[in-house]
Amino acid sequence: AEERCHVLTIPFDALKNYFKRFPLLSYRLARALAEKVTKMDRRLLQAEEDRDTLYAIVGHKDREADVSYQSHTATRFFRQNEQKIRRLAEDGGPVLITGESGVGKYQLGRLVFRNSPSLNRIFLYVNFYNPDTLRPEGGGSPQSEEEILFGRASGGTYQPGLIELARGGTLLIMGLDRLSAGTQERLLGLIDGRTAAESPSGARAKPPLRLLFGAREDLKTLQARGGVVPDLARLLAERTLSIPPLRDRKKDLPALIDFYVRKYSAELGRAPALVPEETLKVLLDHSWPGNEGELAETLKRGLVLAGRGVLQPEDIHLDFKRIEDRGKIDLLKRPLVYRALKSPSFPAALQWTAAPFFFLLTLLLLFGPSDPERNIGSVYTWALGWPMLVIGSFLWARFWCAVCPMGTTGALAKRIQSLDLPVPHVFKKYSTWFIMLMAITVIWLEMVTEMRQHPFRIGLLLAAVLGGSVAFSLLFERQAWCSYICGLGGMMGFFAKVSPLELRADRNVCLSRCTGHECYTGQGDHPGCPYFQLAPALESNQNCKLCLTCLKNCSHRAVNLFLRPPGKELWELRQGSPV
Ligand code: SF4
Ligand code: SF4
Ligand code: SF4
After folding, report:
1. For the structural domain made of 249-315, what CATH number should be given?
2. Which atom of ligand 1 is nearest to the CA of 407?
Protein backbone atom coordinates (compact mmCIF):
# COMPACT_ATOMS: atom_id res chain seq x y z
CA ALA A 1 0.00 0.00 0.00
CA GLU A 2 1.21 3.50 -0.72
CA GLU A 3 1.19 6.40 1.73
CA ARG A 4 1.41 10.12 0.95
CA CYS A 5 4.40 11.86 2.49
CA HIS A 6 6.03 15.31 2.52
CA VAL A 7 9.74 15.95 2.18
CA LEU A 8 11.49 18.67 4.14
CA THR A 9 15.18 19.10 3.37
CA ILE A 10 17.32 20.37 6.25
CA PRO A 11 21.14 20.36 6.20
CA PHE A 12 22.53 17.79 8.63
CA ASP A 13 24.38 20.36 10.83
CA ALA A 14 21.28 22.54 11.07
CA LEU A 15 19.26 19.50 12.13
CA LYS A 16 21.80 18.65 14.84
CA ASN A 17 21.50 22.24 16.14
CA TYR A 18 17.70 22.00 16.23
CA PHE A 19 17.90 18.78 18.22
CA LYS A 20 20.27 20.39 20.70
CA ARG A 21 18.04 23.38 21.12
CA PHE A 22 14.75 21.42 21.17
CA PRO A 23 15.40 17.93 22.70
CA LEU A 24 11.66 17.16 22.62
CA LEU A 25 11.73 17.47 18.83
CA SER A 26 14.39 14.79 18.58
CA TYR A 27 12.36 12.49 20.87
CA ARG A 28 9.12 13.01 18.88
CA LEU A 29 10.80 12.48 15.54
CA ALA A 30 12.50 9.28 16.73
CA ARG A 31 9.19 7.96 18.06
CA ALA A 32 7.31 8.77 14.84
CA LEU A 33 9.99 7.06 12.77
CA ALA A 34 10.01 4.01 15.06
CA GLU A 35 6.23 3.76 14.76
CA LYS A 36 6.45 3.92 10.97
CA VAL A 37 9.15 1.25 10.85
CA THR A 38 7.19 -1.02 13.19
CA LYS A 39 4.08 -0.54 11.07
CA MET A 40 6.00 -1.36 7.90
CA ASP A 41 7.59 -4.34 9.54
CA ARG A 42 4.19 -5.61 10.62
CA ARG A 43 2.89 -5.17 7.07
CA LEU A 44 5.84 -7.06 5.69
CA LEU A 45 5.34 -9.82 8.21
CA GLN A 46 1.65 -9.94 7.36
CA ALA A 47 2.48 -10.11 3.64
CA GLU A 48 4.90 -12.96 4.30
CA GLU A 49 2.30 -14.81 6.34
CA ASP A 50 -0.33 -14.23 3.67
CA ARG A 51 2.01 -15.59 1.06
CA ASP A 52 2.84 -18.65 3.15
CA THR A 53 -0.86 -19.32 3.65
CA LEU A 54 -1.50 -18.94 -0.07
CA TYR A 55 1.37 -21.30 -0.88
CA ALA A 56 -0.03 -23.85 1.52
CA ILE A 57 -3.46 -23.63 -0.14
CA VAL A 58 -2.11 -23.60 -3.71
CA GLY A 59 0.36 -26.38 -2.99
CA HIS A 60 -2.30 -28.48 -1.29
CA LYS A 61 -4.83 -28.01 -4.09
CA ASP A 62 -2.10 -28.67 -6.61
CA ARG A 63 -1.17 -31.94 -4.93
CA GLU A 64 -4.80 -32.97 -4.57
CA ALA A 65 -5.69 -32.22 -8.17
CA ASP A 66 -2.62 -33.53 -9.91
CA VAL A 67 -2.32 -37.23 -10.54
CA SER A 68 -0.25 -36.97 -13.70
CA TYR A 69 2.86 -38.25 -11.93
CA GLN A 70 1.04 -41.51 -11.21
CA SER A 71 1.33 -42.54 -14.85
CA HIS A 72 4.94 -43.42 -14.10
CA THR A 73 4.51 -45.33 -10.89
CA ALA A 74 2.89 -48.34 -12.55
CA THR A 75 5.56 -48.74 -15.22
CA ARG A 76 8.55 -51.05 -15.42
CA PHE A 77 10.72 -47.98 -15.96
CA PHE A 78 9.69 -46.73 -12.53
CA ARG A 79 10.12 -50.08 -10.82
CA GLN A 80 13.61 -50.44 -12.28
CA ASN A 81 14.60 -46.92 -11.22
CA GLU A 82 12.53 -46.56 -8.08
CA GLN A 83 15.44 -46.50 -5.65
CA LYS A 84 17.33 -43.88 -7.59
CA ILE A 85 14.23 -41.72 -8.04
CA ARG A 86 13.44 -41.85 -4.33
CA ARG A 87 17.05 -41.16 -3.34
CA LEU A 88 17.24 -38.12 -5.60
CA ALA A 89 13.81 -36.95 -4.51
CA GLU A 90 14.65 -37.17 -0.84
CA ASP A 91 18.01 -35.39 -0.82
CA GLY A 92 16.59 -32.13 -2.13
CA GLY A 93 19.33 -31.53 -4.72
CA PRO A 94 18.94 -30.69 -8.41
CA VAL A 95 17.92 -33.40 -10.86
CA LEU A 96 18.17 -33.53 -14.63
CA ILE A 97 15.42 -35.45 -16.42
CA THR A 98 16.15 -36.33 -20.04
CA GLY A 99 14.13 -37.94 -22.78
CA GLU A 100 12.47 -37.25 -26.13
CA SER A 101 9.54 -34.92 -26.39
CA GLY A 102 6.45 -36.47 -24.81
CA VAL A 103 8.16 -39.24 -22.78
CA GLY A 104 6.81 -37.84 -19.52
CA LYS A 105 9.59 -35.61 -18.17
CA TYR A 106 7.04 -33.32 -16.56
CA GLN A 107 5.30 -36.25 -14.88
CA LEU A 108 8.61 -37.56 -13.56
CA GLY A 109 9.38 -34.06 -12.27
CA ARG A 110 6.12 -34.12 -10.36
CA LEU A 111 6.95 -37.54 -9.03
CA VAL A 112 10.27 -36.25 -7.66
CA PHE A 113 8.43 -33.27 -6.17
CA ARG A 114 5.79 -35.47 -4.57
CA ASN A 115 8.46 -37.61 -2.97
CA SER A 116 10.41 -34.71 -1.49
CA PRO A 117 9.92 -34.74 2.28
CA SER A 118 10.67 -31.01 2.33
CA LEU A 119 10.63 -28.59 -0.59
CA ASN A 120 7.15 -29.71 -1.46
CA ARG A 121 5.33 -26.51 -0.72
CA ILE A 122 4.78 -25.49 -4.31
CA PHE A 123 5.65 -26.82 -7.75
CA LEU A 124 6.35 -24.38 -10.56
CA TYR A 125 7.16 -25.20 -14.14
CA VAL A 126 8.54 -23.30 -17.10
CA ASN A 127 9.13 -24.64 -20.59
CA PHE A 128 11.82 -22.91 -22.62
CA TYR A 129 11.14 -25.26 -25.53
CA ASN A 130 7.78 -23.60 -26.02
CA PRO A 131 8.06 -19.82 -26.56
CA ASP A 132 4.28 -19.43 -26.33
CA THR A 133 4.37 -20.24 -22.64
CA LEU A 134 6.91 -17.48 -22.07
CA ARG A 135 4.59 -14.65 -23.02
CA PRO A 136 3.36 -12.46 -20.19
CA GLU A 137 -0.30 -12.78 -19.31
CA GLY A 138 -2.41 -10.69 -21.66
CA GLY A 139 -0.03 -11.17 -24.61
CA GLY A 140 3.06 -9.28 -25.70
CA SER A 141 6.47 -10.51 -26.70
CA PRO A 142 8.03 -13.38 -24.75
CA GLN A 143 9.95 -12.42 -21.64
CA SER A 144 13.67 -13.03 -21.42
CA GLU A 145 14.87 -16.06 -19.47
CA GLU A 146 16.45 -13.74 -16.89
CA GLU A 147 13.15 -11.95 -16.31
CA ILE A 148 11.22 -15.18 -16.07
CA LEU A 149 13.59 -16.77 -13.61
CA PHE A 150 14.89 -13.84 -11.62
CA GLY A 151 12.13 -11.25 -11.88
CA ARG A 152 11.65 -7.92 -13.56
CA ALA A 153 11.42 -4.35 -12.30
CA SER A 154 10.19 -1.66 -14.64
CA GLY A 155 8.30 1.61 -14.33
CA GLY A 156 8.03 1.35 -10.56
CA THR A 157 6.43 -2.10 -10.66
CA TYR A 158 8.05 -5.35 -9.78
CA GLN A 159 7.25 -8.82 -11.03
CA PRO A 160 8.94 -11.56 -9.02
CA GLY A 161 10.74 -14.33 -10.87
CA LEU A 162 10.01 -18.03 -10.60
CA ILE A 163 13.06 -18.58 -8.39
CA GLU A 164 11.64 -16.23 -5.81
CA LEU A 165 8.09 -17.54 -6.15
CA ALA A 166 9.14 -21.18 -5.83
CA ARG A 167 11.07 -20.81 -2.62
CA GLY A 168 10.43 -23.67 -0.27
CA GLY A 169 9.25 -25.67 -3.24
CA THR A 170 10.37 -27.06 -6.56
CA LEU A 171 10.94 -25.38 -9.91
CA LEU A 172 11.11 -27.53 -13.04
CA ILE A 173 12.97 -25.77 -15.86
CA MET A 174 12.27 -27.58 -19.11
CA GLY A 175 14.79 -26.84 -21.84
CA LEU A 176 18.07 -26.61 -19.93
CA ASP A 177 19.96 -26.37 -23.22
CA ARG A 178 17.94 -23.29 -24.22
CA LEU A 179 19.35 -21.31 -21.29
CA SER A 180 22.38 -19.10 -21.88
CA ALA A 181 25.68 -20.01 -20.22
CA GLY A 182 25.30 -16.93 -17.99
CA THR A 183 21.91 -18.03 -16.70
CA GLN A 184 23.14 -21.58 -16.17
CA GLU A 185 26.09 -20.23 -14.13
CA ARG A 186 23.73 -18.12 -12.08
CA LEU A 187 21.51 -21.12 -11.37
CA LEU A 188 24.57 -23.18 -10.50
CA GLY A 189 25.58 -20.49 -8.02
CA LEU A 190 22.13 -20.68 -6.50
CA ILE A 191 22.37 -24.45 -6.14
CA ASP A 192 25.77 -24.51 -4.46
CA GLY A 193 25.03 -21.47 -2.32
CA ARG A 194 27.60 -19.15 -3.89
CA THR A 195 24.93 -16.62 -4.74
CA ALA A 196 21.47 -15.93 -3.54
CA ALA A 197 18.92 -15.11 -6.19
CA GLU A 198 18.81 -11.41 -5.85
CA SER A 199 15.67 -10.02 -7.36
CA PRO A 200 15.34 -6.54 -8.84
CA SER A 201 13.05 -5.73 -5.90
CA GLY A 202 15.96 -6.14 -3.53
CA ALA A 203 14.27 -9.16 -1.96
CA ARG A 204 16.21 -12.37 -1.80
CA ALA A 205 14.88 -15.78 -2.63
CA LYS A 206 15.52 -17.72 0.47
CA PRO A 207 16.89 -21.15 -0.21
CA PRO A 208 16.10 -23.98 0.04
CA LEU A 209 14.64 -24.28 -3.40
CA ARG A 210 14.90 -27.39 -5.49
CA LEU A 211 15.74 -27.01 -9.15
CA LEU A 212 14.79 -29.71 -11.61
CA PHE A 213 15.93 -29.51 -15.22
CA GLY A 214 14.47 -31.16 -18.29
CA ALA A 215 16.20 -31.74 -21.63
CA ARG A 216 15.37 -33.67 -24.79
CA GLU A 217 18.91 -34.99 -25.25
CA ASP A 218 21.06 -36.97 -22.85
CA LEU A 219 23.75 -35.24 -20.84
CA LYS A 220 26.62 -36.46 -23.00
CA THR A 221 25.04 -35.07 -26.16
CA LEU A 222 24.28 -31.81 -24.40
CA GLN A 223 27.88 -31.54 -23.24
CA ALA A 224 29.25 -32.39 -26.67
CA ARG A 225 27.36 -29.58 -28.33
CA GLY A 226 27.83 -27.08 -25.52
CA GLY A 227 24.21 -27.16 -24.37
CA VAL A 228 25.21 -27.20 -20.72
CA VAL A 229 28.06 -25.43 -18.91
CA PRO A 230 30.80 -27.83 -17.70
CA ASP A 231 30.35 -27.22 -13.95
CA LEU A 232 26.62 -27.80 -14.09
CA ALA A 233 27.16 -30.90 -16.25
CA ARG A 234 29.57 -32.28 -13.61
CA LEU A 235 27.04 -31.62 -10.87
CA LEU A 236 24.23 -33.31 -12.79
CA ALA A 237 26.26 -36.29 -14.01
CA GLU A 238 25.18 -38.49 -11.12
CA ARG A 239 21.84 -36.84 -10.76
CA THR A 240 20.23 -37.64 -14.09
CA LEU A 241 17.10 -39.66 -14.80
CA SER A 242 16.77 -40.72 -18.45
CA ILE A 243 13.39 -41.85 -19.72
CA PRO A 244 13.64 -44.08 -22.81
CA PRO A 245 11.21 -43.45 -25.69
CA LEU A 246 7.96 -45.40 -25.54
CA ARG A 247 8.88 -47.52 -28.59
CA ASP A 248 11.79 -48.96 -26.55
CA ARG A 249 9.67 -49.84 -23.55
CA LYS A 250 6.52 -51.30 -24.99
CA LYS A 251 6.14 -53.44 -21.91
CA ASP A 252 5.08 -50.23 -20.16
CA LEU A 253 2.23 -49.70 -22.60
CA PRO A 254 -0.46 -51.82 -20.87
CA ALA A 255 0.11 -50.03 -17.55
CA LEU A 256 0.09 -46.61 -19.22
CA ILE A 257 -3.01 -47.46 -21.25
CA ASP A 258 -4.75 -48.61 -18.10
CA PHE A 259 -3.74 -45.41 -16.30
CA TYR A 260 -4.94 -43.06 -19.03
CA VAL A 261 -8.15 -44.98 -19.70
CA ARG A 262 -9.03 -44.69 -16.01
CA LYS A 263 -8.01 -41.06 -15.85
CA TYR A 264 -9.93 -39.88 -18.91
CA SER A 265 -12.96 -42.09 -18.26
CA ALA A 266 -13.19 -40.44 -14.83
CA GLU A 267 -12.85 -37.00 -16.42
CA LEU A 268 -15.72 -37.87 -18.75
CA GLY A 269 -17.77 -38.98 -15.76
CA ARG A 270 -17.86 -42.62 -16.83
CA ALA A 271 -16.75 -45.96 -15.46
CA PRO A 272 -13.35 -47.03 -16.86
CA ALA A 273 -13.87 -48.20 -20.44
CA LEU A 274 -12.98 -51.76 -21.37
CA VAL A 275 -10.08 -52.15 -23.77
CA PRO A 276 -10.58 -55.34 -25.80
CA GLU A 277 -7.66 -57.36 -27.15
CA GLU A 278 -8.03 -56.06 -30.71
CA THR A 279 -7.81 -52.44 -29.49
CA LEU A 280 -4.79 -53.29 -27.37
CA LYS A 281 -3.16 -54.82 -30.42
CA VAL A 282 -3.67 -51.63 -32.44
CA LEU A 283 -2.09 -49.64 -29.62
CA LEU A 284 0.82 -52.03 -29.15
CA ASP A 285 1.58 -52.14 -32.88
CA HIS A 286 2.03 -48.37 -33.14
CA SER A 287 5.53 -46.93 -32.69
CA TRP A 288 4.37 -43.81 -30.76
CA PRO A 289 6.76 -41.21 -32.18
CA GLY A 290 5.10 -38.65 -29.90
CA ASN A 291 5.65 -40.95 -26.90
CA GLU A 292 3.44 -40.79 -23.82
CA GLY A 293 1.97 -37.43 -24.84
CA GLU A 294 0.69 -38.95 -28.08
CA LEU A 295 -0.60 -42.03 -26.27
CA ALA A 296 -2.49 -39.91 -23.75
CA GLU A 297 -4.02 -37.71 -26.49
CA THR A 298 -4.98 -40.72 -28.61
CA LEU A 299 -6.70 -42.44 -25.70
CA LYS A 300 -8.45 -39.28 -24.64
CA ARG A 301 -9.84 -38.77 -28.14
CA GLY A 302 -10.73 -42.44 -28.41
CA LEU A 303 -12.67 -42.35 -25.15
CA VAL A 304 -14.64 -39.31 -26.29
CA LEU A 305 -15.63 -41.30 -29.38
CA ALA A 306 -16.07 -44.61 -27.58
CA GLY A 307 -19.50 -43.82 -26.29
CA ARG A 308 -20.39 -46.12 -23.49
CA GLY A 309 -18.29 -48.89 -22.09
CA VAL A 310 -15.83 -50.20 -24.67
CA LEU A 311 -12.89 -48.63 -26.49
CA GLN A 312 -13.07 -50.18 -29.95
CA PRO A 313 -10.24 -50.21 -32.53
CA GLU A 314 -12.21 -47.80 -34.75
CA ASP A 315 -12.17 -45.25 -31.92
CA ILE A 316 -8.39 -45.10 -32.13
CA HIS A 317 -7.05 -42.51 -34.57
CA LEU A 318 -3.28 -42.58 -34.94
CA ASP A 319 -0.86 -40.36 -36.86
CA PHE A 320 -2.76 -37.20 -36.17
CA LYS A 321 -0.01 -34.68 -36.69
CA ARG A 322 -0.33 -33.52 -40.23
CA ILE A 323 -0.99 -30.13 -41.76
CA GLU A 324 -3.59 -30.57 -44.43
CA ASP A 325 -4.09 -27.31 -46.23
CA ARG A 326 -1.48 -27.44 -48.97
CA GLY A 327 -2.92 -26.44 -52.35
CA LYS A 328 -6.37 -25.81 -50.88
CA ILE A 329 -8.45 -22.69 -50.35
CA ASP A 330 -10.29 -22.29 -47.07
CA LEU A 331 -13.70 -20.90 -47.98
CA LEU A 332 -14.38 -20.03 -44.36
CA LYS A 333 -11.74 -17.33 -44.55
CA ARG A 334 -14.28 -15.30 -46.57
CA PRO A 335 -16.25 -13.47 -43.87
CA LEU A 336 -19.47 -13.65 -45.86
CA VAL A 337 -19.25 -17.42 -46.34
CA TYR A 338 -18.25 -17.90 -42.72
CA ARG A 339 -21.17 -15.87 -41.40
CA ALA A 340 -23.65 -17.58 -43.72
CA LEU A 341 -22.53 -21.10 -42.82
CA LYS A 342 -22.30 -20.37 -39.12
CA SER A 343 -25.79 -18.91 -39.06
CA PRO A 344 -28.50 -21.03 -37.37
CA SER A 345 -30.50 -20.83 -40.63
CA PHE A 346 -27.90 -23.04 -42.30
CA PRO A 347 -28.85 -25.67 -43.35
CA ALA A 348 -32.27 -25.36 -41.66
CA ALA A 349 -33.69 -23.02 -44.34
CA LEU A 350 -32.75 -25.47 -47.10
CA GLN A 351 -34.16 -28.39 -45.12
CA TRP A 352 -37.50 -26.65 -44.67
CA THR A 353 -37.59 -25.87 -48.39
CA ALA A 354 -36.77 -29.42 -49.45
CA ALA A 355 -39.12 -31.23 -47.04
CA PRO A 356 -42.52 -30.12 -48.48
CA PHE A 357 -41.21 -30.72 -51.97
CA PHE A 358 -40.15 -34.26 -51.06
CA PHE A 359 -43.44 -35.16 -49.39
CA LEU A 360 -45.38 -33.83 -52.36
CA LEU A 361 -43.20 -35.90 -54.66
CA THR A 362 -43.74 -39.06 -52.57
CA LEU A 363 -47.51 -38.49 -52.53
CA LEU A 364 -47.50 -38.04 -56.29
CA LEU A 365 -45.52 -41.26 -56.71
CA LEU A 366 -47.81 -43.22 -54.39
CA PHE A 367 -51.16 -41.83 -55.42
CA GLY A 368 -50.60 -40.22 -58.81
CA PRO A 369 -51.15 -41.79 -62.24
CA SER A 370 -49.64 -45.24 -62.63
CA ASP A 371 -48.34 -44.35 -66.10
CA PRO A 372 -44.74 -43.22 -65.45
CA GLU A 373 -44.86 -40.72 -68.30
CA ARG A 374 -47.91 -39.01 -66.86
CA ASN A 375 -46.78 -39.10 -63.25
CA ILE A 376 -44.86 -35.86 -62.57
CA GLY A 377 -43.21 -37.45 -59.52
CA SER A 378 -41.82 -40.26 -61.64
CA VAL A 379 -40.69 -37.93 -64.42
CA TYR A 380 -38.94 -35.69 -61.91
CA THR A 381 -37.31 -38.63 -60.08
CA TRP A 382 -35.70 -40.18 -63.15
CA ALA A 383 -35.13 -37.12 -65.32
CA LEU A 384 -33.89 -34.70 -62.69
CA GLY A 385 -33.73 -36.04 -59.13
CA TRP A 386 -31.56 -39.10 -59.61
CA PRO A 387 -29.03 -37.53 -62.05
CA MET A 388 -28.81 -34.49 -59.77
CA LEU A 389 -27.99 -36.68 -56.78
CA VAL A 390 -25.18 -38.46 -58.59
CA ILE A 391 -23.70 -35.44 -60.38
CA GLY A 392 -24.22 -33.34 -57.23
CA SER A 393 -22.11 -35.76 -55.18
CA PHE A 394 -19.20 -35.16 -57.54
CA LEU A 395 -19.64 -31.42 -57.14
CA TRP A 396 -20.73 -30.70 -53.58
CA ALA A 397 -19.88 -34.01 -51.92
CA ARG A 398 -22.52 -35.42 -49.59
CA PHE A 399 -24.22 -32.10 -49.02
CA TRP A 400 -27.53 -33.55 -50.20
CA CYS A 401 -27.63 -35.53 -46.95
CA ALA A 402 -27.55 -32.25 -45.01
CA VAL A 403 -30.88 -31.25 -46.56
CA CYS A 404 -32.33 -34.70 -47.36
CA PRO A 405 -35.91 -34.77 -46.03
CA MET A 406 -35.55 -38.43 -45.03
CA GLY A 407 -32.60 -37.66 -42.79
CA THR A 408 -34.19 -34.39 -41.61
CA THR A 409 -37.42 -36.18 -40.65
CA GLY A 410 -35.39 -38.72 -38.69
CA ALA A 411 -33.58 -35.92 -36.87
CA LEU A 412 -36.90 -34.21 -36.16
CA ALA A 413 -38.39 -37.42 -34.78
CA LYS A 414 -35.37 -37.75 -32.50
CA ARG A 415 -36.03 -34.32 -31.03
CA ILE A 416 -39.53 -35.41 -30.08
CA GLN A 417 -38.64 -38.81 -28.67
CA SER A 418 -35.66 -41.14 -28.73
CA LEU A 419 -34.28 -43.94 -26.61
CA ASP A 420 -30.79 -42.78 -27.62
CA LEU A 421 -29.39 -46.29 -27.26
CA PRO A 422 -25.73 -46.81 -28.16
CA VAL A 423 -25.43 -48.06 -31.73
CA PRO A 424 -24.72 -51.82 -31.66
CA HIS A 425 -21.09 -52.45 -32.41
CA VAL A 426 -21.97 -54.73 -35.31
CA PHE A 427 -23.40 -51.75 -37.26
CA LYS A 428 -20.25 -49.74 -36.71
CA LYS A 429 -17.86 -52.54 -37.46
CA TYR A 430 -19.58 -53.77 -40.62
CA SER A 431 -21.13 -50.50 -41.77
CA THR A 432 -19.43 -50.73 -45.19
CA TRP A 433 -21.06 -54.13 -45.69
CA PHE A 434 -24.47 -52.90 -44.56
CA ILE A 435 -24.26 -49.89 -46.86
CA MET A 436 -23.13 -52.02 -49.82
CA LEU A 437 -25.82 -54.58 -49.14
CA MET A 438 -28.46 -51.90 -49.04
CA ALA A 439 -27.19 -50.20 -52.21
CA ILE A 440 -27.15 -53.53 -54.07
CA THR A 441 -30.63 -54.35 -52.77
CA VAL A 442 -31.96 -51.02 -54.07
CA ILE A 443 -30.40 -51.57 -57.51
CA TRP A 444 -31.65 -55.15 -57.57
CA LEU A 445 -35.17 -54.09 -56.55
CA GLU A 446 -35.11 -51.40 -59.19
CA MET A 447 -34.36 -54.02 -61.83
CA VAL A 448 -36.56 -56.91 -60.74
CA THR A 449 -39.58 -54.78 -59.92
CA GLU A 450 -39.14 -52.60 -63.01
CA MET A 451 -39.37 -49.58 -60.80
CA ARG A 452 -38.97 -47.12 -63.62
CA GLN A 453 -42.28 -48.29 -65.01
CA HIS A 454 -44.10 -48.19 -61.67
CA PRO A 455 -44.17 -44.84 -59.84
CA PHE A 456 -45.94 -46.46 -56.89
CA ARG A 457 -42.95 -48.73 -56.26
CA ILE A 458 -40.54 -45.79 -56.25
CA GLY A 459 -42.82 -44.11 -53.73
CA LEU A 460 -42.71 -47.25 -51.59
CA LEU A 461 -38.92 -47.31 -51.73
CA LEU A 462 -38.67 -43.67 -50.61
CA ALA A 463 -41.18 -44.32 -47.83
CA ALA A 464 -39.14 -47.35 -46.71
CA VAL A 465 -35.93 -45.29 -46.51
CA LEU A 466 -37.83 -42.61 -44.61
CA GLY A 467 -39.19 -45.28 -42.22
CA GLY A 468 -35.68 -46.68 -41.65
CA SER A 469 -34.30 -43.24 -40.88
CA VAL A 470 -37.11 -42.45 -38.41
CA ALA A 471 -36.98 -45.88 -36.73
CA PHE A 472 -33.22 -45.70 -36.19
CA SER A 473 -33.50 -42.16 -34.87
CA LEU A 474 -36.13 -43.21 -32.37
CA LEU A 475 -33.98 -46.09 -31.18
CA PHE A 476 -30.36 -45.02 -31.41
CA GLU A 477 -28.19 -42.02 -30.68
CA ARG A 478 -27.43 -39.45 -33.40
CA GLN A 479 -28.29 -40.35 -37.03
CA ALA A 480 -27.37 -44.01 -36.98
CA TRP A 481 -29.30 -44.90 -40.14
CA CYS A 482 -27.55 -42.30 -42.26
CA SER A 483 -24.15 -43.11 -40.76
CA TYR A 484 -24.14 -46.88 -40.96
CA ILE A 485 -26.97 -48.23 -43.12
CA CYS A 486 -28.37 -46.00 -45.85
CA GLY A 487 -27.19 -47.22 -49.25
CA LEU A 488 -28.14 -43.98 -50.97
CA GLY A 489 -25.99 -41.96 -48.59
CA GLY A 490 -23.23 -44.56 -48.93
CA MET A 491 -23.25 -44.22 -52.70
CA MET A 492 -23.07 -40.45 -52.48
CA GLY A 493 -20.26 -40.78 -49.96
CA PHE A 494 -18.33 -42.86 -52.46
CA PHE A 495 -18.74 -40.30 -55.27
CA ALA A 496 -18.02 -37.46 -52.82
CA LYS A 497 -14.39 -38.52 -52.68
CA VAL A 498 -13.73 -36.73 -55.95
CA SER A 499 -15.63 -33.59 -54.96
CA PRO A 500 -13.72 -30.28 -54.92
CA LEU A 501 -15.18 -29.54 -51.46
CA GLU A 502 -13.93 -31.00 -48.21
CA LEU A 503 -14.37 -30.29 -44.54
CA ARG A 504 -11.30 -30.84 -42.39
CA ALA A 505 -10.17 -29.60 -39.00
CA ASP A 506 -6.82 -28.00 -38.32
CA ARG A 507 -5.26 -30.78 -36.29
CA ASN A 508 -2.55 -28.54 -34.90
CA VAL A 509 -5.23 -26.42 -33.24
CA CYS A 510 -7.17 -29.49 -32.09
CA LEU A 511 -4.09 -31.08 -30.57
CA SER A 512 -2.78 -28.01 -28.86
CA ARG A 513 -5.88 -26.19 -27.71
CA CYS A 514 -8.89 -28.45 -27.54
CA THR A 515 -9.86 -30.29 -24.41
CA GLY A 516 -13.60 -30.77 -24.90
CA HIS A 517 -13.84 -32.02 -28.53
CA GLU A 518 -17.15 -30.22 -28.81
CA CYS A 519 -17.40 -30.97 -32.54
CA TYR A 520 -18.17 -34.51 -31.43
CA THR A 521 -19.71 -34.08 -28.00
CA GLY A 522 -21.74 -30.94 -28.72
CA GLN A 523 -22.08 -27.75 -26.69
CA GLY A 524 -24.88 -27.32 -24.17
CA ASP A 525 -28.16 -27.80 -26.03
CA HIS A 526 -26.40 -28.15 -29.38
CA PRO A 527 -25.77 -31.81 -30.21
CA GLY A 528 -22.46 -32.95 -31.68
CA CYS A 529 -21.81 -34.35 -35.14
CA PRO A 530 -24.88 -36.33 -36.25
CA TYR A 531 -22.61 -38.71 -38.18
CA PHE A 532 -20.40 -39.73 -35.22
CA GLN A 533 -17.40 -37.88 -36.63
CA LEU A 534 -14.63 -36.17 -34.68
CA ALA A 535 -13.67 -33.37 -37.08
CA PRO A 536 -9.87 -33.77 -36.77
CA ALA A 537 -10.22 -37.50 -37.46
CA LEU A 538 -11.89 -36.88 -40.85
CA GLU A 539 -9.73 -38.08 -43.70
CA SER A 540 -12.43 -38.62 -46.29
CA ASN A 541 -15.62 -36.99 -47.52
CA GLN A 542 -17.39 -40.31 -47.29
CA ASN A 543 -18.77 -39.87 -43.81
CA CYS A 544 -19.37 -36.13 -43.69
CA LYS A 545 -22.55 -34.50 -44.93
CA LEU A 546 -21.22 -30.93 -44.72
CA CYS A 547 -23.93 -29.89 -42.27
CA LEU A 548 -21.35 -27.63 -40.55
CA THR A 549 -22.63 -28.53 -37.08
CA CYS A 550 -19.00 -28.94 -36.05
CA LEU A 551 -18.22 -25.41 -37.21
CA LYS A 552 -20.90 -24.08 -34.90
CA ASN A 553 -19.75 -26.18 -31.95
CA CYS A 554 -16.01 -25.57 -32.24
CA SER A 555 -14.92 -22.55 -30.25
CA HIS A 556 -11.31 -22.77 -31.48
CA ARG A 557 -12.03 -21.91 -35.10
CA ALA A 558 -10.35 -25.18 -36.12
CA VAL A 559 -12.88 -26.27 -38.73
CA ASN A 560 -12.05 -25.46 -42.36
CA LEU A 561 -14.11 -25.86 -45.50
CA PHE A 562 -11.62 -26.32 -48.31
CA LEU A 563 -11.89 -25.96 -52.03
CA ARG A 564 -9.45 -28.57 -53.33
CA PRO A 565 -8.41 -29.92 -56.71
CA PRO A 566 -11.08 -32.48 -57.70
CA GLY A 567 -9.97 -36.05 -57.06
CA LYS A 568 -7.29 -35.01 -54.56
CA GLU A 569 -8.68 -37.37 -51.96
CA LEU A 570 -8.31 -40.38 -54.27
CA TRP A 571 -4.75 -39.33 -54.98
CA GLU A 572 -4.04 -39.05 -51.27
CA LEU A 573 -5.51 -42.49 -50.64
CA ARG A 574 -3.31 -43.87 -53.39
CA GLN A 575 -0.29 -42.32 -51.69
CA GLY A 576 -1.28 -44.21 -48.56
CA SER A 577 -1.73 -41.21 -46.32
CA PRO A 578 -3.44 -37.87 -46.27
CA VAL A 579 -1.14 -34.87 -46.64
S1 SF4 B 1 -27.94 -41.07 -45.63
FE2 SF4 B 1 -29.78 -41.56 -46.79
S3 SF4 B 1 -31.50 -41.02 -45.51
FE4 SF4 B 1 -29.68 -40.14 -44.60
S5 SF4 B 1 -29.67 -38.09 -45.35
FE6 SF4 B 1 -28.41 -39.25 -46.76
S7 SF4 B 1 -29.77 -39.98 -48.35
FE8 SF4 B 1 -31.02 -39.21 -46.70
S1 SF4 C 1 -12.60 -29.26 -34.39
FE2 SF4 C 1 -12.75 -27.85 -32.67
S3 SF4 C 1 -13.99 -28.93 -31.17
FE4 SF4 C 1 -13.28 -30.46 -32.64
S5 SF4 C 1 -11.42 -31.30 -31.75
FE6 SF4 C 1 -10.81 -29.62 -33.11
S7 SF4 C 1 -10.71 -27.82 -31.80
FE8 SF4 C 1 -11.87 -29.38 -30.68
S1 SF4 D 1 -18.00 -33.60 -39.51
FE2 SF4 D 1 -19.05 -31.64 -39.26
S3 SF4 D 1 -19.91 -31.18 -41.26
FE4 SF4 D 1 -19.35 -33.34 -41.26
S5 SF4 D 1 -21.20 -34.39 -40.67
FE6 SF4 D 1 -20.06 -34.05 -38.80
S7 SF4 D 1 -20.81 -32.12 -38.00
FE8 SF4 D 1 -21.50 -32.27 -40.12
Report:
1. 1.10.8.60
2. 5
